[in-house]
Amino acid sequence: MGVRARPTALVAAVVAVLALAPAAAADDWLPHPSGATWTYQWTDSVYATSPTIEKVTVKDGADAKAYTLAWTTDGQNSPSGIASTGTVSFQETTGGIENTDWSSNPPPASFPVLCAQLAGCNNSLASTYYLLIWGGRSPVLQEPLRAGDTWSSTGGAQGDVTSSTIYEGVEKITVPAFPAPVAAAKVRSDVTQAGARGDPYGSGVRTVWWVYGVGPVKIEYQHAGGANAPVTDAVLQSTSLTPKPAPADANWFPMTKGATLRYRWTNPKHMKTPSVQQFTVDDVVNDVARFTVKSVSGPVRSAGSYIFVARLDGLTNTAADTKAATTASLPPLGPASLPPSQRRRFFTPFDLLVFGFSPVLDAYPAAGDTWAAKNPSRDFSVFGVTGATRVVGIQRVTVPAGTFKALVVTSTLKQAGFPFGSGTRTCWFAPGRGLVKLVFRHGDGSVSTVELLK
After folding, report:
1. Domain check: are 339 and 225 in the same one?
2. How many domains does the chain have?
3. What is the DSSP string of 172-211?
4. Which residues lie below 8 Å from residue 116, measured CB to CB, with a gap of 6+?
């Protein structure tokens, strides 16, 4: 990473969700209370075989969304003799932890040059936190952290370092700071740099073990370059912080490119035959996914797309563009404040799912979580629905696609003057599959049932 301060223009896509669910704190993956300290020891198998010891402290922004950590080797009696001081700045966002700035003294002259030319090179891997943010500044860690999640990121002083990252799950790990095994989130990144004089040192595979309530406790960077390529390790020696239980990482609404979901939707009162429709995850970028829908059979002929975003304020549907024709006698929806041409209709299972207010799910759903519609809000302007949602817990459910231990979420919905837009909706979400069943008991006495076929 850069060895001199480099202003950064951080551009973030922000999704406005006005009916917020309880959210896990982003800072628990990298907490920074006043007085917090961490001591790391790092080595490089070729360029720094003796340990370098760095003490990290909170320079400013304790417990704030934007904060700066500082490190130094002063007074640590590092066997390597490497002197290093620097700062690294972060910002917590609804999408995770972002690195916004950095500065330090230059790396040792013996280290590879991680730029196209030596003069003015602001890149370095000669510190624990430079290992952490190399090629992965935006984000450093994506949230919510869910099983199988992947994301892409960039870094380097010129933005010329890229990484592709996957969350590999929870692993027990021991480090000097925690000699008894602690649960850590294992995050693996394939990092690529092209054109630097020090290639292939800037490329490789980095694995970071994150402990909730503490931060990174171990970093291993396997540099590219063949059988004798360097390996850099940084390990937490001590800290003032204590591990916390991490939120469950079950992925209740996976967004995997190419995945397909085929549903059967019935409503005996308004549809004589079932409507079968198929959804495909057409594209995914950093937990923003586009689902396309097409009709398979039945009285509703639909085609279109839905955009879903997973962030710390929950899973939100941010856009829907669907065209449909139907021979079914589906009642109209409100709200009365909008002209009929601008009102939503129930044409697909996802219309039933996202109707009312956001989020569809909170970031780390657990039994007892609740959230409610708000007025005024974007959702109320679109749907005109009041009500509340509650996470019930885990239940076994059987649908044509199989039997699942599913998360049950119920919503009460009231759309004034429109019975079909009022009632009780219950959803079942299975880990790794998403929505497997939905039952909407409408205020007009009809019942819509959606089941996953395959």
Report:
1. no
2. 2
3. EEEETTEEEEEEEEEEEEEEEE-S-TTTTTT-EEEEEEEE
4. 195, 196, 197
pTM above 0.85, yes or no: yes
Instruction: Strands of 327-367 (E only): list them.
Output: none
At 348 the pLDDT is 97
What letter does residue 143 receive in the DSSP assignment?
S
| Residue 13 belongs to a domain | no
Only one residue has tokens 């839905």, namely: 306
Cα separation values, 83 from 42, 97, 133, 189, Å: 13, 28, 20, 28
Same domain, 231 and 315: no
Q: Tens digits of per-residue pLDDT, 102-113?
A: 999 999 999 999
Amino acid 159: pLDDT: 86
Q: How many residues does the chain have?
A: 454
CATH of the domain at 70: 2.40.360
Mean pLDDT of 201-218: 98
Three state DSSP letters for 369-390: CEEECCCCCHHHHHHCEEEEEE
Q: Return d(Cα 405, Cα 187) in angstroms, integer.
A: 26
pLDDT digits (tens, 9 = 90+) for 126-174: 999 999 999 999 999 999 999 999 999 999 988 889 999 999 999 999 9
The DSSP output letter for 27 is G
C-alpha 248/C-alpha 252 separation (Å) is 11
Does residue 166 sit within a domain?
yes
Q: Tens digit of pLDDT for each residue in 315-353?
A: 999 999 999 999 999 999 999 999 999 999 999 999 999
| Residue 81 falls inside a structural domain | yes
Identify whether residues 158 and 55 lie together within a single domain.
yes
CB atoms within 10 A of CB 54: 25
Instruction: Name residue, tokens 């995770």.
Output: 96
CA distance 55 to 53: 7
Average pLDDT on 80-90 reads 97
Q: Which residues contact 265 (CB under 8 A, 6 or more apart)?
A: 271, 274, 275, 276, 277, 298, 300, 348, 349, 352, 448, 449, 450
232-243 pLDDT, tens digit each: 999 999 999 999
Phi, psi (rounded to 5 degrees) for 390? -135, 135
Range of the domain at 410: 260-452
CA distances from 269 to 186, 277, 332, 414 (A): 50, 19, 14, 20
